[in-house]
Amino acid sequence: MNPQDKPPILEPSQPSLSDKKVILGIDIGTSGVRACIVEKNYPSSDSSENMLFEAHIEMPVAEIRSTNGLNTLEISQNPQIWIDTLESLLKKIGHNFPIKQITHLVLDATSSTVLLVDQSGHAYTDALMYNDAQSVLPAKVIAGLIEQSAEFSGAQGASSTLAKVATLLEQNPNLSKPIICHQIDFINHYLSGALNITDENNALKLGYNSIHQAWPNWIEKYLKTLNSTIQLPQVVKPGSFIAMIAPHIAERFGFRKNLKVMAGTTDSIAGFLASGASQIGDAVSSLGSTLAIKAISDKPLFDKRFGLYSHRLGNNWLVGGASNSGGRVLLNHYNLADLVHIVKSINNKDIEDFLKTPRQNYYPLSQAGERFPIADANLPPKMPKSPQCAVADIDGNQQCLQAHQTFLLNVLTGMTEIERLAYHKLVELHLPPVKKIFSVGGGTQNHVWMQLREKLIDAQFLHPEHQQAAYGVTKLID
């Protein structure tokens, strides 16, 4: 072939796959499972990519129970629900896409959702979900062990995977040779039969040391005080080969027998990859109920003072932190319909005029306590005064409308200053300056918030390439 000629783009129905990969990415979310099928054409020096198909199946939410004696919630789920939902998704794909064309399958799933299984991969326990926070006492023990080890660790706090595993072992003291299974590991076992193997990103909150690429000695010692027969999983890099699809799964759903099941990642990293951020100095701000940021760095950063931790991302690192500020603060004052109405009433000139006036340094929080960029468990909210008139009175009352517009502008400016301070904090901690920010999350629908950010934060703002983690996880496959 002439090197200047591009390889032909094959239709997914054509059998020849010598110059392409057809990758099925699956995102196991909290309320549903989503699939994206992407075709990548090669050689890599002239590669292109096409989105071929997307599908989504809803899933029941996790069960929430109060934890006796603790002001926390136990949030668990029967893992069979994941399998049932996944099977429905695979059937939907098979009815609408030539499924034999798929060459690679890769998943992402919620970080720190974990259960224990037996040596055959059958569930010993329900899964404790990513936001389960009952493991307060094990977390204190683990914090002491981390302090003694003088190592950085992602296994901090009651919601860490390691604390949850300790809780499961304490609640089930007589298990024989239990295997630790992240949500993604459980589903990968269902698909391929691979067991006791996990990816580096999911392993982080179990205590895996990504810098040394090894388990710290103290973790296995600690877990064996709870169950002497337990062992830690083998850890592989995201995007690496795990196993071929299980023959009975291939036959049942119509996959090719040599379909490769690849190691995946967490949902947040898959979402980051979907944005298109890929270079040192790229960052993603997630504008949701809270404000989370992740930035690509050439070196890792772990700092428990700010809840900062780092995932290995190829040859670089993904450094993340989260503020307690965000959209949840707004919903304490407005329902969604009223919020949308007020936002729509604010135009570009209103924003420009507002920014010309003297402003106070507000720090919008729903309640006392902040994680990042200020680390203070008792930091009080600093909010503007609420308008004297009710939001129901804004129609036909210009003065009342202006009062709510000013209140909203002050809160959103405060949130923007928190985001700006967060990126400055990363620089203070010797990370490369952020040059480009990709914005994701429901807050991107708020044009006032978006414009304030572009005016007050010194960076280039870009629209994400894609919003779906199921698409992002396919980026792991070269």
From TrEMBL:
Lineage: superkingdom: Bacteria
Keywords, comma-separated and alphabetical: Kinase, Transferase
Domain Carbohydrate kinase FGGY N-terminal stretches: 22-273
Gene3D superfamilies reported in the protein's UniProt record: 3.30.420.40
MF term (GO), any: kinase activity
The keyword Kinase is annotated on this UniProt entry: yes
Pfam families in alphabetical order: FGGY_N (PF00370)
InterPro entries, A to Z: ATPase_NBD, FGGY_N
PANTHER family reported in the protein's UniProt record: D-RIBULOSE KINASE, SUGAR KINASE
Family per similarity comment: Belongs to the FGGY kinase family.
Name this polypeptide is given: Carbohydrate kinase
Native organism taxonomy: Bacteria, Pseudomonadati, Pseudomonadota, Gammaproteobacteria, Thiotrichales
